[in-house]
Amino acid sequence: KTEKIVYDDSNEKEDFFNRRVNDGSDLSVRGAVEMTGSKWAKESSISSAESYMGKVLPAIMDVTLKQEETKSSPSSLVAQVESISVDDPNCVAKVTPERIYSMACHPSPHSLLVGAGDKTGYVGLWNVDRTPSSDKEDGGNDASDGVHLFKVHGGAVSHMEWNSSGSLLYTSSYDGSVRKFDVGTQTFSEVFATYDESSQYKDKLGYGLDQGYRYWIQYSCMDNRSSSDQCLFLSSSLGTVFHVDLREKGKITFNETLSEKKINTVSLHPNGTTLATAGLDTTVALWDIRNFGGKSMKSKKIPEPLAVQHCGKSVNSAFFSPSGRMLLSTTMADNLDLITDGHLRSGLIKKPDKRIRHDNRTGRWLSTFMARWHPHSLSAGNDEIFVVGSMRRLRSIELFNGSEGEIIRALDGEGMTAVTSRCCFHPSSEKLVVMGGSSSGRVTVAR
Predict the structure, then answer these.
(1) DSSP annotation of 290
(2) CA dihedral 23, 27, 31, 34 (to 10 degrees)
(3) What does the DSSP assignment read for 49-105?
(4) How far is Cα 66 from Cα 50, in angstroms, rounded to an integer?
């Protein structure tokens, strides 16, 4: 029986700013699925997504990592490394149509929900623990494989991140917009977007930020100093970093030009004042954000950083560990660099404390590697761990000891059929779960 198509792929589509999906209006779950086009927007996939997002997800999000639980030590997480596997055929799924640019895992310790964003603006959410009984809860769509696909952006989804309770999912895109899925309201709302200086956008918070075709939002992340989950750091393709406060009417706290070239990532130290940037200018730079902002909102010249490391080639990412003790950078000079107490450094950082030789030459058709920390692996001075993709012929995901810079294990198996460029952990402090996304839109889960 042919399934009814509920979306019309008309050639006559309204042209929105920077080819965004709409004028910034809220998207319901149904509307976001319908935006995916006739290939995916069947009536069954819509009802399945509405059921999962509206019934199942609210039921699991109340149990979060914020609860006072008996937590295992990080040594037990490391001990689990040898026992996790990628051989289960049910732990591989096609989550997005195109190359995966970003990944995030819902924080629920009782249900595994993996999110991925691709190069064309699709966001896929995969209920990994889907069972026949959960199929019925999802509207009875056996064909979904637990994957729910949404179209919420017009360009690559550069970053996605859940808040700590799992009630909000933020996504940012090269189309210059940031959207928030709210489990409570069941809407994908545009909370921020950049615009040019056209008069019709004068009342928009991001008015005047967009500088033309060479400008896009390269990266975003939540400001964890704010308990409201409504503050964001963003970086652009033209070397600017800005902070957006979405509370009340919203404001841009600062907007600073920190480089003449694209800034790939920003990362705030747990001290709340030291910001690390990394990008196309081949440097990792450390800044005191207390020196940013002021009445002018945007400085005319690049301010002086606290410290700088010259890496020789473009830097894909630089992230502080959850403890703040280590700064981890991934460079196109085929290195993973670890700097100890980077927030205390000043001037020129001549060399990292640990340098790991690592093939990061992913080429044109693969997303770049970005080594990421486990968000909750540290306790009482024990080691933090991080994950990164691998270019080895025997496809694998690599786990490293953060303090020593030594590889713990290269995860390989039947589920590893391609290079997983973007990897992350489930944030659980008790159970080790690792996932990686490939350029074919597939996600592999190791547990």
Answers:
(1) G
(2) 60
(3) HHHIIIIIHHHHHTS-TTS---PPPHHHHHHGGGT--S--GGGEEE-SSS-EEEEEE
(4) 27
Q: Show the tokens assigned to 447.
A: 């547990």
List all residues 6 or more positions away from 409 whose beta carbon is below 8 Å from its beta carbon.
81, 82, 398, 399
Which residues, 6+ apart, have CB-to-CB distance to 249 below 8 Å? none
Which amino acid, one-letter code, is at 68? E
Question: CA-to-CA distance for 134 and 186, rounded, in angstroms?
Answer: 20
Reading the block at residue 226, the tokens are 């704010």
The arrangement of strands across the sheet holding 147-151 comes to: 100-105, 113-118, 122-127, 147-151
Beta bridge partners of 149: 124
Residue type, 418: A
Q: What is the pLDDT of residues 246-261, one digit of tens each?
A: 998 899 999 999 999 9
User: What are the tens digits of pLDDT across the range 395-434?
Assistant: 999 999 998 899 999 999 998 999 999 999 999 888 899 9
Identify whether the C-beta of residue 121 lies closer than 8 Å to the C-beta of residue 152. yes
Distances (CA, A) of 423 to 43, 160, 397: 32, 13, 8
∠ CA 327-332-338, rounded to 5°? 20
- Please tell me whether residue 6 adopts helix, strand or coil conformation: coil
- Could you tell me the two tokens for 152? 């919420």
